[in-house]
Amino acid sequence: MRRDDPWDRASLDMNVRPNKVVRDISQKDLMVPAGAGNLKLFLLCMACAVMLSVIGLWTLLMLFELSGFGPGRWLLPIVGIAALVGGLALFVWSISDFRRWRAYGESI
Fold it and tell me: Which of 108, 80, 93, 101 is nearest to 33 (CA)?
């Protein structure tokens, strides 16, 4: 059976976008967050550094310890110092990066 209008297909109704799409966007959606503060950033940096040192350094040192060539009782202090130094370095880098992006945002 042949249709009268060959272009009256469901695929055109399902796949063609309408000309005007109603979007629910407010000014709050377009605002750039100012940040939650340096304390929260510091705690997040320290948490990331602890996780990275446990994943990277503790695992490697534990393999050396199991093979007999490890640092002995210095294992946990080495991992702790690495986490502290890594967290402080990450915090300093992120503060400088936030300042750079704020300066860029004010310049445009």
Answer: 101
